[in-house]
Amino acid sequence: MAVFNKVKFVYAIVCAVSSLMASEMSLDECREKVATGDAEAQWQLGQRYEEGRGVGKSVIRAVIQYKKAAEQKHRKACARLSELYSRGEFVKKDAMLAAKYRALASGENAESATVESDKVTSTAEERIDEIEVALDWILGRNGKRKDPKIGIRILYDAAKEKPIAKAVFVKRWQKGDLDNALSVLTEEEWELIVPWFREAFAAGWKKAGLIVGNAELYKKNYMVAADHYLAAGRAGLPKAWYYLGLLYWTCSDETQWGMPEYMKSDYKAMEAFKNTLRQDPGYVSAKWDLGRLYLFSKDKKCSDSLKAFQIFSDFYKRDKANKLKMYFYGLSGWFKCLDEYGQKKDLFEKAARVSKGAIDYSTHRKRLQEEREIRRQAGEFLDIIKQAADMGCEPARNFMEQFEKDTSQVER
Q: Which of 181, 82, 190, 80 is nearest to 138 (CA)?
């Protein structure tokens, strides 16, 4: 603690004195002078990188600029590096380097500190540059347009030889910067990155469980896949909950993986989809599939035509011209009417016996109006399904064919 306080004191004094001797350069002037090897410009550019002022924030680039300035005995840069190495901030904690930069900042043992600085700076630049260029593309900084697909290719190539790049790869994926860029990787390359995510998962990066879960799923290790999805979901990754729901859902077209019956559970799928939407209310696929589950599940704990109708009604209102949305809106509404009619069927039949004195006339009229209203609504929803069928919606067409077939059999 005493050493750390001494470092802070030296750093504060050096900065205070130096600020009287040099004013801040503009970014363009700073870059021009950095190109000529100006130590003050290197120091100021390092500060800009560290704070993200006018340039993309990059603590690694900041450290590299500080080291270049330190090689020329720039005292503020030396004092800052001493502080960083003392605390292990942005760099690996190193008491020896901290002491050497502290000595250089105070004008002592400058030769030994400079030699060490040369070695560390060249190593840092060699190790970091590819990663930093990749991040420039991924994040759209330092004059690069944002294009994660270019960045991921550079980062992947760097990660094959540099362990730190693997960690950066996984970290950027966890932050969502690589979601739409992973498609550039080939199947063979995917197999190579899975171990990186396994290591990250074992190290406590639970969101990495999504990638590991996918790998286990394709190996048909269903329970292992489910465990990884669960861990990633609990770590705050909505997509992991969604995939877990698809894994459990017996009605889904996406779950044709030969999963054993004991793993299938509409109830678990429903809870997983709900968790997806709790973490991300705008997760469209989860909302859509939750509606389908409510509509088609044979599990009484999950089947709910009213909830299905509420979900598909929202989709339909947003896009009434979409034939698939028309179909599910009409179908869910039609099922809602059937369920409502079934729940009141006894009341309707009882009302029909008014002439025998089973019920008063006013109640008979009320029940009759309710029955007619339900039938009217069912007819409207059926018309919507027919419109979807006429527009070429295959599920709607199949439904109408079956409905007409069933109706003709009843009439006979």
A: 181
